[in-house]
Amino acid sequence: MDYVSALLPPVVMAAFFIALVRVIVKTQGGAAKAKEDAAVDAALARAQSGSRTSGAGAPTDA
Question: What are the backbone angles phi and psi of residue 43, rounded to the nearest 5°?
């Protein structure tokens, strides 16, 4: 019975991890996906325009 007590914690952790991944995958997309994508695009556009206008001391992506 020692092998059962040794294997139980990893099996339980694996089951919880699989359940977590399934929840994450299921909640991707949906009705709010377009709104979330638009918010991310706007934030990226603000960050890029801010780095272009900040002057010569700004780091570049090149």
Answer: -65, -40
**In contact, 26 and 19? CB cutoff 8 Å:** no
- What is the residue type of 39? A
Would residue 55 be called left, alpha or beta, if left means φ above 0 and alpha means ψ between -120 and 50 degrees?
Answer: left
Query: Of all residues in the chain, what percent are helix, strand and coil, respectively (each to 5)?
Result: 75, 0, 25
pLDDT one-digit tens code per residue, 12-56: 999 999 999 999 888 887 777 888 888 999 999 999 987 766 555
DSSP reduced 3-state for 2: helix
